[in-house]
């Protein structure tokens, strides 16, 4: 796809938006207010009304609950969308957002590509309730059951100013479910529920039970989620080693001394076992490489405060402190050599991550020069990776018969390492007059990275570790942009942002059964230019954004051969790169019963140092659908088409070509309390059929090992036809 095609598509979409504006501007309601405060991730437990699940999607998307810039492009997948499509995990939720491609590694595991780059490289970090989930970039999307999530927010484009310098391409913020019962009444347990689901492609079962109470200023909520699935069926066979089972629980306690203030404490624990059927860390898959997390654990604790104030300089304050601990046993069976099979077990201990942030919002005005909203604060984290313990058994074969066994004792193979990051930021959003808002902000980050020098898997690594055993860096980043309201229903948006990404400890120093360290990695820098249009009329919402990004010292995961084995990957600085793209998202409540929605993304990326295309970039992706849901009728019917163009512009040293596809999914939800009997209360039955025509397809972002032939797992095929049924009851 050429840049000319991208620009032509942008022009066509822009013309469509303008024509809609001319036809609907008179119906436009009052101009949406400028964001003057960060929105808290809960409503303080005062019974905020929610949109009915089995009902029309409406013309607008849910409001973000995360801190944002007015010039940023943000997509939200809310609780209603999640419940109407019943996804297996966070990967499937994120696949509904424009600009996001999923790179599956198993039944629930994998990464995403946001604006052309993988979350495995931490250019699009994951946040939970506004705090960074730092530490396991390969596994970070595994840890969430959909029932635990209130909504998922995708900020597209650099978000360094407010979220940290490594948010080069954007970020994902998972907003967990919180108490919503009234805290002003006497305390009592007020709400609860249970759900049970089944999906045929992996013979998968899921369940979630929860309860909450509130009163006397307090609120409490707890839930437990369980999931289990076999290796899923593809149209060409089973994706071996793609099975999973997991259990997790969450608990939160809140206290609101006044209606405008809330203190909260939350805890979350998660344990799962699953296989990497393919993808990053798992390609080429069965029978050459079987990699399993068995088990994979996460413990999270968080304290938070939010408050709103009137009459003073500060109108809103948020503060939080958190600690996250990860622990994984990584079991691998490697048969890439015909002469030997290696069974290994690596206990990846940690990391332990301690962090927090504080934010203040100050609206003020200048006589004759309009109003200003200033957002300022800071955040920090400290990460300690104790290293890992590993053992292995090597079986030597002759004509398929074991002739010798060699045992490796349990030893620590990776040195202990540490990383500290602290940043301060300030953002001003100035509205000199009603039609214009100018946004300008900056951030300064400090990084310190340290590693011990023993033990090392290879003596050849010692000099590289010594040279990088204790490093310090300062990283300034910034953003400037504007929103021009050219018509009551149309905004023009532009933004320029810089970014800096320091390599993570895992990229620098970590060694696993499938990846190698690289202590010589240098930081990556970037600048992004973007502009677009936003439409907001009474019946519809739409936006289109075009962008051009330039990166220096580009970090990329490369397939490498180590000690004669070709299944390893390593992060490397590979030069300079450019990415161009167009993103569109829209929703139209055409009639009270009919909702039309969709999005598409066009991308093109090039390593300008080598002249090769950037790998794993989907050139064109689209998702379009229609919902029929008469208000109050108690049912919702959806048809969704997911489509992608074939990927023929490839780096032949790293990836295979992929074919285009069109996949039809059907979803239905029924409110049994409305359709059958009020005695059933809030009881919902959801039935879906995904990949209706059992299409065999691969997502263009999925990693493949080109040293091996194509197969079901290299690159990993997506699931075939999948029948879904779920029963939910809330009281």
The helix count comes to 7
Indicate the percent of residues in helices: under 10%
Task: Write down how many β-strands occur, each being a DSSP E stretch of 2 or more residues.
Answer: 36
Residue runs with pLDDT of under 50 for 5 or more positions = 1-44, 46-50
Provide the residue-averaged pLDDT.
Answer: 88
Distance between the termini: 52 Å
How much of the sequence lies in strands comes to: over 45%
> How would you sum up the global shape?
globular
> What Rg is obtained from the alpha carbons, in whole angstroms?
25 Å
The biggest beta sheet reads: 22 strands, antiparallel, barrel
Structural class: mainly beta
Overview of the molecule:
There is one protein chain. A hairpin with a 5-residue loop joins strand 14 and strand 15 (261-276). Residues 1-44 and 46-50 have low confidence and may be disordered. This protein is mainly beta. The strands form four sheets. It has a 22-stranded antiparallel barrel. A five-stranded mixed sheet has the order 1-7-8-5-6.
Layout: helices, strands, pairs:
Elements lengths: L2 H22 L48 E6 H7 L4 H5 L5 E5 L5 E5 L2 E2 L7 E3 L2 E2 L16 E8 L3 H4 L6 E7 L11 E12 L4 E12 L2 E12 L3 E2 L2 E2 L5 E12 L5 E16 L12 E20 L7 E22 L2 E27 L3 E16 L1 E12 L2 E14 L2 E17 L2 E16 L10 H6 L2 E18 L2 E12 L3 H5 L5 E2 L7 E13 L3 E23 L2 E25 L4 E14 L4 E2 L6 E9 L6 E10 L16 E11 H4 L6 E9 L31 E9 L1
Parallel strand pairs: 5-8, 26-29
Antiparallel strand pairs: 1-7, 2-3, 3-4, 5-6, 7-8, 9-10, 9-36, 10-11, 11-14, 12-13, 14-15, 15-16, 16-17, 17-18, 18-19, 18-20, 19-22, 20-21, 22-23, 23-24, 24-25, 25-27, 27-28, 28-29, 29-30, 30-31, 30-32, 32-33, 33-34, 34-35, 35-36
């Amino acid at each position: 796809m050429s840049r000319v095609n991208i620009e032509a598509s942008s022009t066509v979409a822009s013309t469509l938006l303008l024509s809609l504006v001319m036809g609907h501007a008179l119906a436009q309601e009052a101009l949406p207010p400028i964001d003057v405060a960060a929105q808290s991730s809960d409503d303080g437990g005062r019974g905020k009304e929610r949109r009915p699940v089995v009902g029309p999607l409406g013309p607008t998307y849910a409001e973000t609950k995360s801190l944002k810039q007015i010039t940023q492009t943000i997509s939200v997948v809310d609780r209603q969308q999640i419940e109407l499509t019943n996804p297996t995990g966070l990967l499937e939720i994120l696949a509904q957002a424009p600009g996001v491609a999923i790179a599956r590694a198993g039944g629930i595991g994998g990464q995403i590509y946001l604006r052309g780059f993988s979350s495995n490289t931490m250019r699009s970090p994951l946040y939970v309730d506004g705090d960074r989930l730092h530490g396991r970039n390969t596994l970070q999307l595994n840890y969430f059951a959909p029932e635990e999530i209130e909504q998922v927010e995708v900020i597209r484009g650099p978000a360094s100013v407010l979220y940290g310098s490594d948010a080069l391409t954007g970020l994902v913020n998972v907003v967990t479910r919180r108490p919503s019962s009234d805290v002003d009444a006497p305390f009592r347990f007020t709400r609860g529920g249970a759900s049970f689901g089944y999906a045929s492609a992996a013979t998968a079962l899921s369940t979630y039970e929860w309860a909450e109470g509130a009163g006397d200023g307090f609120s409490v909520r707890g839930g437990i989620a369980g999931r289990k699935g076999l290796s899923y069926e593809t149209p060409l066979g089973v994706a071996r080693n793609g099975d999973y089972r997991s259990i997790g629980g969450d608990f939160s306690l809140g206290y609101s001394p006044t209606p405008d203030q809330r203190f909260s404490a939350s805890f979350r624990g998660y344990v799962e076992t699953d296989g990497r059927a393919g993808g990053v860390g798992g390609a080429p898959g069965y029978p050459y490489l079987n990699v399993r997390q068995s088990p994979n654990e996460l413990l999270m604790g968080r304290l938070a405060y939010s408050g709103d104030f009137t009459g003073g300089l500060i109108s809103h304050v948020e503060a939080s402190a958190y600690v996250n601990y990860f622990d994984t046993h990584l079991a691998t069976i490697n048969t890439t050599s015909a002469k030997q099979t290696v069974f290994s077990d690596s206990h990846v201990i940690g990391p332990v991550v301690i962090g927090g942030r504080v934010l203040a919002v100050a609206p003020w005005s200048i006589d004759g020069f309009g109003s200003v909203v200033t957002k300022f604060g800071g955040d920090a984290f400290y990460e300690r990776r104790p290293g890992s313990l590993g053992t292995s058994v090597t079986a030597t074969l002759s004509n398929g018969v074991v002739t010798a066994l060699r045992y490796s004792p349990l030893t620590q193979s990776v040195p202990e390492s540490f990383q500290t990051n602290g940043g301060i930021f300030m953002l001003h959003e100035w509205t000199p007059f009603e039609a214009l808002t100018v946004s300008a902000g900056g951030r300064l980050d400090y990084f310190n990275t340290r590693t011990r020098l023993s033990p090392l898997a290879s003596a050849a690594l010692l000099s590289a570790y010594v040279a990088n055993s204790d490093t310090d860096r300062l990283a300034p980043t910034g953003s400037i942009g504007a929103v021009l309201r050219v018509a009551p229903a149309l905004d023009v948006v532009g933004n320029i942002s810089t970014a800096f990404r320091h390599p993570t400890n895992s990229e620098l120093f970590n060694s696993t059964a499938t990846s190698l360290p690289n202590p010589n990695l240098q930081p990556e820098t970037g600048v992004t230019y973007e502009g677009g249009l936003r439409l907001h009329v009474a019946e519809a919402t739409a936006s289109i954004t075009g962008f051009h990004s330039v990166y220096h010292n580009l970090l990329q995961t490369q397939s490498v051969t180590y000690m004669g084995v070709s299944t390893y990957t390593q992060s490397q600085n590979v030069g300079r790169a450019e990415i161009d793209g167009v993103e569109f998202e829209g929703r139209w409540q055409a009639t009270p019963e009919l909702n039309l929605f969709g999005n598409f993304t066009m991308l093109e990326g090039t390593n300008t140092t080598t002249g090769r295309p950037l790998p794993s970039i989907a050139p064109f992706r689209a998702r379009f659908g229609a919902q029929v849901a008469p208000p109050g009728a108690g049912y919702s019917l959806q048809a969704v088409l997911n489509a992608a163009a074939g990927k023929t512009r490839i780096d032949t040293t790293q990836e295979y070509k992929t074919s285009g596809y069109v996949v039809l999914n059907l979803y239905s939800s029924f409110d049994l309390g409305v359709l059958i009997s009020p005695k059933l209360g809030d009881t919902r039955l959801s039935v879906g059929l995904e990949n209706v025509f059992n299409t065999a397809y691969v997502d263009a972002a999925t990693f493949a090992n080109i040293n091996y032939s194509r197969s079901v797992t290299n690159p990993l095929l997506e699931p075939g036809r999948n029948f879904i049924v779920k029963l939910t009851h809330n009281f």
